[in-house]
Write a structure and sequence with these properties.
This protein has 13 helices and 14 strands. It has 448 residues and is α/β, with parallel strands linked by helices. It folds into 4 domains: 94 residues, OB fold (Dihydrolipoamide Acetyltransferase, E2P) (Beta Barrel); 148 residues, Hypothetical protein af1403, domain 2 (Rossmann fold, 3-Layer(aba) Sandwich), CATH 3.40.50; 87 residues; 51 residues, no CATH class. The strands form 3 sheets. The chain has a 5-stranded mixed beta barrel with strand order 1-2-3-5-4. A 5-stranded parallel β-sheet has the order 7-6-8-9-10. Helix 4 packs parallel to helix 8 and helix 5 packs parallel to helix 6. It is rod-shaped, with a radius of gyration of 56 Å. It starts with 9 loop residues before the first helix and ends with a strand.
Length: 448
């Protein structure tokens, strides 16, 4: 307490008055209308808060004013968080404003907090309650305003990431006093029709008042009751509404909601591209491997003319061997005959007695040599005839043809042919392409 007899200066008086006010009045909310608003070059904002019976000067310093997400204007009804103070140099009573909100938001926030606690107690925010999203939705419903920029962003994202998807709009108000009920009815209508696989509830960014419809109890309960999985994309990443909390998935923005809805299709497209590339590589490898095998087989493939030439050489060799064998046999018999003649010469008396027998043996020998010669010549003729029959060109010359299918496979059984099949004909001179008309009961093909 001051001694009434002590004389103090005006500065001391104002300082004591300021200290007393700041000590007696803690931070508190004051409601009123903004008037006489001015913005100083320093960034500080000066205005008065007034009601029907009084007004008080206030100041919001630059650091505080910059945190307000909307522009302060004269005539606005606000609730200001203030420190009651005194401007000492002039002795003016003033309110140092910490923050400002639009009038009524305090009550709204209190109602929001109570509703949030109630819904949380009911388990509506629990992850176990929320439904899994379909990986490949075919039709997506959108709860939004037809004129909203958020709708254009969602449609652009859907077209970019999964253009095959159908999008169905359930139009609704997204701002204003009646917006909450309108949004709830649109969600209920989408659930009743059950014509979509996934539902997006979206709205672009704005002030907390602009997004307040998505904090309505009717909206939250409509999302919970909806039989279709719901993604909420309301406002920006820093905005969180009750719709976000009860939805099966909360997206940071409307565009992010569309991206979540198409994630399965988007990933599948990338996976298909990877599979396609892997399949292409596998096919190229298989083709290269088969081509290499074909190259090896071509080295083993013998041309019919070459095979015929080899058979001809073999025949000539056999003929030479046969002639040599006959000559050797003839020499052996001649030598034996000469030896017999010499023996007979030395024993002519006995030879005379056996001359008839010798003549008979001579005839038998000649006959044997002649028969052996004819037999060998006959065998040689048979080999030549067999080689001639094996010659494919001789077969073709007799009017026959070789038939191969489109893969070059030799056709030996008409049962392997079918109507409409294209085959290649190889003739003695040239070739032709033919189409199988039909086969008869004995599987003889009829071509054209």
């Amino acid at each position: 307490m001051l001694d009434p007899a002590v004389v103090i200066t005006v500065s001391e008086l104002n300082r004591l008055a300021r200290q007393s006010l700041e000590r007696e009045f803690p931070l508190l909310w004051v409601a009123g209308e903004i008037s006489n608003l001015t913005r100083a070059a320093s960034g500080h904002v000066y205005f008065s808060l007034k009601d029907e019976g009084a007004q008080a000067r206030g100041v919001m310093f630059r650091s505080r004013a910059q945190s307000i997400p909307w522009k302060l204007e004269n005539g606005q009804q606000v609730e200001a968080r203030v420190l009651v103070s005194l401007y000492e140099p002039r002795g003016d009573f003033q309110l140092n404003v910490e923050t400002v909100r639009r009038a009524g938001l305090g009550r709204l926030f209190e109602a929001f907090a109570r509703l949030k606690v109630e819904l949380e107690r009911e388990g509506l925010f629990d992850a176990e309650r929320k439904r899994p999203l379909p990986r490949f939705p075919r039709r997506i419903g959108i709860i939004s305003s037809p004129r909203a920029a958020a709708l254009r962003d969602v449609l652009a994202a859907l077209k970019r990431r999964a253009p095959q998807l159908e999008a169905l709009l359930y139009p609704t108000l997204v701002q204003g006093d009646s917006a909450a009920g309108d949004i709830a009815r649109a969600i209920a209508a989408a659930g009743a029709r059950n014509e979509c696989d996934l539902l997006l509830v979206v709205r672009g960014g704005g002030s907390i008042e602009d997004l307040w419809a998505f904090n309505g109890e009717a909206v939250a309960r409509a999302i919970v009751a909806c039989p279709i999985p719901v993604i909420s994309g309301v406002g920006h990443e820093t905005d969180t509404t009750l719709a976000d909390l009860v939805a099966d998935l909360r997206a940071a923005t409307p565009t992010a909601a569309a991206e979540h809805a198409t994630q399965g299709w988007f990933q599948a497209a990338a996976e298909i591209a990877d599979i396609d590339a892997a399949l292409s590589r596998a096919i190229q490898y298989r083709i290269a491997r088969e081509q290499q095998g074909l190259d090896h087989l071509s080295l083993l493939l013998v041309n019919p003319a070459t095979r015929l030439a080899r058979a001809s050489d073999r025949l000539a060799l056999l003929g030479s061997q046969l002639a040599a064998s006959l000559a050797q046999s003839l020499r052996k018999h001649r030598d034996r005959l000469n030896r017999s003649a010499l023996g007979l010469g030395r024993t002519s008396p006995r030879t005379d007695r056996h001359r008839g027998h010798i003549e008979l043996l001579k005839q038998r020998l000649s006959t044997t040599i002649r028969d052996q010669h004819q037999k060998r010549l006959g065998a040689l003729d048979k080999l030549a005839t067999a080689l001639t029959h094996l010659n494919p060109e001789a077969t073709l010359a007799r009017g026959f043809s070789i038939i191969r299918d489109a893969d070059g496979k030799l056709i030996t059984d008409a049962a392997s042919l079918h109507s409409g099949q294209t085959v290649s004909l190889y003739l003695a001179h040239g070739g032709a392409q033919a189409s199988i008309l039909t086969t008869d009961s004995n599987h003889r093909p009829i071509v054209t």
